[in-house]
Design goal:
Low-confidence stretches: none
Bound molecules: zinc ion
Strand content: 25-35%
Largest sheet: 5 strands, mixed
Number of helices: 5
Strand order of the largest sheet: 13-15-16-5-17
Order of helices and strands: EHEEHEHEEEEEEHEEEEEEHEE
Shape: globular
Radius of gyration: 20 Å
Number of strands: 18
Distance between the termini: 23 Å
Helix content: 10-25%
Number of domains: 2
Structural class: alpha+beta
Mean pLDDT: 94
């Protein structure tokens, strides 16, 4: 395992352009990427890379603000040995917009009335037709809200593998005025909700908690996210599970079709990871959970 640091610089804040920092810091295209949408430069380095202090010192010296995030990375052997893996989609090419505001239907009868956590999807997944480019050439992807998409062949491979705890829904693109059009993708859904994670989880931000205690969790901060579960929590796991906790931003005032719903994270066994890997899927982060005593 190693820890990776992502340093994000707003290009508009760097007089004469980011190259004036990247050059002296020794950060070439192997570690620096342009995020065109955000007009930002993203530099990804091993926490122990000597270029990291050099880069941060240059930014400090020039009075340029930056954002910093850390995440753990693992070898295939470490992923293979994990009990469960958090599966998150973080492709730089972007995530497709989908969910309640595009026409996906939900039952809110058991959801939190303040944050919408616990919303139960009752229809096929609907995604925004204007953003289909995010799916081009991809065998698996996700919406902005971690709804998981797999192409039909990958859905077939998952079904045939005998993996437990999964079901599939159809995926439709919503065209303004022209209605819905079915896509050659399936939404991967989990039938099993994990117990609450252990309080020994770290790097999970909960700055504005909802009183229900179930939402507003965030991963991917200055300290790496490390989800912990007790051994007893794993007694009933399936190959595909979702967390009890719901993550991400929430905006819900009772009208689900005008809301931003939080979402649970997917926790899968290495069996599922292997099927994705063997299909050549890229763009996902896989994070082993930690098994703790309490
Ligand atoms: Zn809530």
């Amino acid at each position: 395992m190693w820890t990776e640091v992502e340093v994000m610089i707003d290009n508009r804040r760097v007089p004469n352009g980011p190259q004036t920092i990247l050059g002296p810091a020794g950060c070439g295209p192997d570690v620096a990427a342009l995020d065109e949408v955000a007009d930002a430069t993203i530099i990804t380095l091993d926490e122990k890379d000597e270029r990291l202090p050099r880069l941060l010192n240059l930014l400090k010296e020039r009075g340029i603000r930056w954002f910093e995030k850390r995440r753990d990375r693992f070898t295939d052997e470490e992923l293979q040995a994990a009990r469960l893996l958090v599966m998150e989609y973080g492709s730089l090419e972007g995530k497709i917009f989908g969910g309640p505001r595009v026409g996906t239907k939900y039952d809110m009868s058991e959801a939190c009335s303040r944050c919408g956590a616990g919303a139960r999807q009752t229809s096929a997944l609907v995604v925004e037709a204007d953003e289909l480019r995010h799916l081009e050439g991809r065998r698996a992807a996700a919406t902005c809200y971690e709804d998981m998409l797999v192409d039909e062949r990958l859905a077939g491979a998952l079904a045939e593998s005998g993996a437990t705890g999964l079901e599939f829904r159809g995926v439709f693109a919503a065209f303004e005025k022209r209605g819905h059009f079915q896509l050659p993708y399936r939404q991967l859904c989990a039938t099993h909700v994990m117990p609450r994670m252990s309080p020994r989880s770290t790097g999970i931000d909960l700055s504005q908690p909802c009183p229900c205690g179930r939402s507003c969790f965030m991963t991917y901060n200055r300290t790496p996210a490390r989800l912990a579960y007790r051994a007893a929590d794993l007694a009933d796991i399936r190959d595909v599970n979702v967390t009890w906790e719901w993550y991400g931003y929430s905006k819900y005032n009772g009208d689900v079709y005008d809301s931003v719903l939080p979402y649970p994270l997917f926790l899968v066994t290495p069996k599922v990871w292997r099927i994705y890997r063997d299909a050549g899927v890229t763009g996902f982060d896989w994070l082993p959970i930690r098994v703790v005593d309490a």
